[in-house]
């Protein structure tokens, strides 16, 4: 029996399934932190699969080559600076009132009838450098005011905004999920940005614009008066405190957001278009995600901060505060990478590859279905991505996939990680609370929106994978 579990395809697949079941029980039933749950599940799987203690945790004198250290260290070395710098960039954009400038300008361009679409664009643009929940905290008051002035349902304006924020959070760096997928699958962030935009924009248009317009006319949610009063009070207080600080120009806000994306893309295309050019090393250096984001952060500190009267000490304090919440995110991603490393070491990947080959299931479909299952079961998109990435990564070995194709697999995983947000997802309750919706209305609006984003995003990735 033990030999069958540790060496036969059926046994290895059963071990993998049991490890995932243990992971879900620990997170859902025991209410244990995902980081600890992933660590325990990985250790139990390694022991059950017959890996040696030295291979799992090393020796008393050295553990550098152990799965525990290489699993954690390999991925964190890739994503920690990117997520940290992206978080600081988003905090500076928020503090400089860049979001206010962006929304007001978009509303002026599109007018009252185009206000929902303007909210969606604001979510898309501002969602690139800030986390999903932070984007809601910053932009929700502007949605309240716009809905109040338009005299229509809050849902009509909230859905496009949420679609924009969710799409960028799921599909585009520097957000934790896409960055983790990049590290686990070994795909460049440049290709991930390209495929994320190609697959994400149609998903945003269908979910945020089309679905948002349809459901916004059928579910009427009023804007609570206390929200408007609180917003007006906050605006008055901000005006009193920061009257001497001019607002940044919209072009400046967009430029700061665009700088890291452009540098990363130039480095990616440079390896194809300018292989023999002396400029390639320069583009490669500047386009390294950590370097590109460092440049963007320094520009934001100078152009949006110091030049507009924000003292250096305040910027330093802002950066410190913004970094505090990301500790658990990094631990979850690191533990997920360790879990994936164990799966690879046990040979489950090869066994799964054989099963897939026999069943005829495309890898991109398998990746999406696994991610969907994990998302539905435990609610966290990040856990779904890192766990699925750890399972799928070994299946890529020996396959002659291009970077573009691997990026599409990463997008499929990301798409699966956002499907059908419901009561086990913290984002569900944030949306419900901030947009004054009952649980029933949140299920009818937000849950359906996330499902449409997921399905359309995956459909685009699957179609492109047939030709790339």
Summarize the structure.
By secondary structure, this protein is mainly α.
Tell me what the structure shows.
With 468 residues, this protein is mainly α. It is built from 23 helices and no strands. Helix 7 runs parallel beside helix 9 (154-171). The chain is globular.
Give me some keywords for this one.
mainly alpha, 78% helix, 468 residues
Report the portion of residues in β strands. under 5%
From the alpha carbons, calculate the radius of gyration and give it in angstroms: 23 Å
Query: Count of helical segments?
Result: 23
Question: Regions with pLDDT < 50 over 5+ consecutive residues?
Answer: none
Q: What order do the helices and strands follow? A: HHHHHHHHHHHHHHHHHHHHHHH
**Strand count:** 0
Structural class: mainly alpha
Mean pLDDT over the residues: 85
Kindly report how far apart the N and C termini lie: 43 Å
- Please summarize the sheet with the most strands: none
Shape: globular
Helix content: over 70%
């Amino acid at each position: 029996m033990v030999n069958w579990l540790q060496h036969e395809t059926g046994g290895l697949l059963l071990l993998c399934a049991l490890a995932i079941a243990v992971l879900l029980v620990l997170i859902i039933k025991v209410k244990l932190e995902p980081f600890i749950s992933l660590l325990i599940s990985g250790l139990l799987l390694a022991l059950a699969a017959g890996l040696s203690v030295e291979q799992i945790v090393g020796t008393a004198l050295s553990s550098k080559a152990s799965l525990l250290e290489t699993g954690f260290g390999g991925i964190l070395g890739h994503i920690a600076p990117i997520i940290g710098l992206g978080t600081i960039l988003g905090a500076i954009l928020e503090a400089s009132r860049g979001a206010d400038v962006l929304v007001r300008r978009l509303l002026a361009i599109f007018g009252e009838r185009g206000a929902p679409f303007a909210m969606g664009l604001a979510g898309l643009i501002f969602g690139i450098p800030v986390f999903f929940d932070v984007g809601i905290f910053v932009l929700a008051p502007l949605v309240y005011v716009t809905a109040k002035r338009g005299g229509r349902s809050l849902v009509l304006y909230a859905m496009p905004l949420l679609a924009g924020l969710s799409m960028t959070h799921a599909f585009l760096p520097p957000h934790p999920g896409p960055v983790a997928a990049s590290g686990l699958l070994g795909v460049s962030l440049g290709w991930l940005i390209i495929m994320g935009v190609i697959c994400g924009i149609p998903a945003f248009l269908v979910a945020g614009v089309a679905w948002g317009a349809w459901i916004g006319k059928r579910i009427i949610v009023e804007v609570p008066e206390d929200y408007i009063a609180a917003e007006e009070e906050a605006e008055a207080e901000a005006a009193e405190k920061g009257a001497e600080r001019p607002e940044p120009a919209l072009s400046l806000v967009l430029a700061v957001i665009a700088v890291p994306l452009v540098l990363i893309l130039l480095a990616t295309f440079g390896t194809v278009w300018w292989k023999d050019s002396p400029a390639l090393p320069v583009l490669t250096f500047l386009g390294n995600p950590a370097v590109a984001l460092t440049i963007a952060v320094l520009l934001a500190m100078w152009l949006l901060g110091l030049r507009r009267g924000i003292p250096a000490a305040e910027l330093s304090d802002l950066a410190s505060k913004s970094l505090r919440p990301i500790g658990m995110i990094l631990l979850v991603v690191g533990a997920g990478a360790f879990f994936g490393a164990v799966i690879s070491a046990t040979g489950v990947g090869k066994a799964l590859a054989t099963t897939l080959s026999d069943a005829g299931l495309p890898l991109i479909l398998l990746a999406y279905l696994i991610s969907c299952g994990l998302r539905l079961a435990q609610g966290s998109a990040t856990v779904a991505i890192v766990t699925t990435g750890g399972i799928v990564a070994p299946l890529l070995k020996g396959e002659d996939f291009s970077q573009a194709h691997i990026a599409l697999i990463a997008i499929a995983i990301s798409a699966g990680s956002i499907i059908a947000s419901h009561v086990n997802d913290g984002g569900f309750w944030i949306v419900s609370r901030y947009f004054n919706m009952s649980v029933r209305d949140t299920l009818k609006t937000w849950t359906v929106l996330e499902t449409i984003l997921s399905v359309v995003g995956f459909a685009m990735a699957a179609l492109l994978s047939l030709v790339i």
